[in-house]
What does this fold into?
Amino acid sequence: MIRAQKENKEALLEVEDLVVAFDTEQGRICAVDGVELELAKGSVLGIAGESGCGKSVTALSIMRLLPKPVSRIMGGRIWFKDQNLLDLPIEQMHTIRGKKISMIFQEPMTALNPVHSVGHQIMEVFHLHFPQMGSQKIRIAGKEMLEKVGIPDPDKVMKKFPHQLSGGMRQRVMIAMALACEPDILIADEPTTALDVTVQAQILDLIKKVQSDSAMSVILITHDLGVIAENCDKVLVMYAGRVAEKADVGPLFQNPLHPYTRGLLDSIPSRAKKAKTLLPTITGGVPSLLNMPDGCRFAGRCPHAMSLCRRGVPEMIQHESGHGVACHLYAKAL
Ligand SMILES: Nc1ncnc2c1ncn2[C@@H]1O[C@H](COP(=O)(O)OP(=O)(O)OP(=O)(O)O)[C@@H](O)[C@H]1O
Ligand SMILES: [Mg+2]
It folds into this structure.
């Protein structure tokens, strides 16, 4: 389907009302329920939220890489340059994946093949997307890509196998492969959580540098709000498969609206230290996706929950331009 008229001219990628279900032994669960997001050209969007809230499922839906046959996209549209990715034949998706939209994962070994050398794998990316390029040129391009992501002595690294490299180096190789075709969008799903702190900072700096040099758009998924504050322009906070709040990074940190976002921010060490208090935590746990309450999914843990919150699903309310919150506390009718 081609989009007749684009509402948001700035957005390179727009996810509308995405619903993704998984069939599990216990029954069907709705892991993502009505997620909406926009990614502007050249900007960095952070997605935050607790483990299991649907960050990776959202990313994998965009890539059309959800595990089959357990998962199913029940509804929604994913617009990339006026094309709904969910309607594309899979062969066409192959030409977009890696070339126009790339993804890097928390654990590079999920993307790297243990039985092939680094050189073979990076050259493979060029072979796949630029079959007309000769082998000599591909070898040079592969080497240049490794150099670009800060790999010293790329000739030597080309001959190595993934298990012979450190975690940080493997992550750099994966980034090199993801960036080889100069994609319009890079989706980085927890790209640094498996790495130690210094290497984490180096990898994030690298992504940021490539992003600003090439005006690439980035979706950065992380449970670390500090990483979002430092690296993103906009942020989406997810809770139990839904978007709780979305805003530019400044307003979100200065004026968080959703009680869940406030809870998340209050549990950041630096903030609590300034207030000289113990770190508060959000009490209770995320409800099971198998047994979701009616109404707001956060109501059971929310200090402000009202009876309405247990009845009706809160709509996304525009508080200020670009700052939306899905919470009954902000409903005009109150
Ligand atoms: N292969 C699967 N089979 C069944 N359910 C799944 C599967 N993958 C994900 N889910 C369900 O989807 C929900 C969202 O998963 P997702 O991987 O998107 O979480 P996440 O926000 O990325 O968490 P994390 O921060 O731990 O990576 C999970 O809570 C789980 O119930
Ligand atoms: Mg995840």
Observations:
- The CA atoms of residues 101 and 220 lie 13 Å apart.
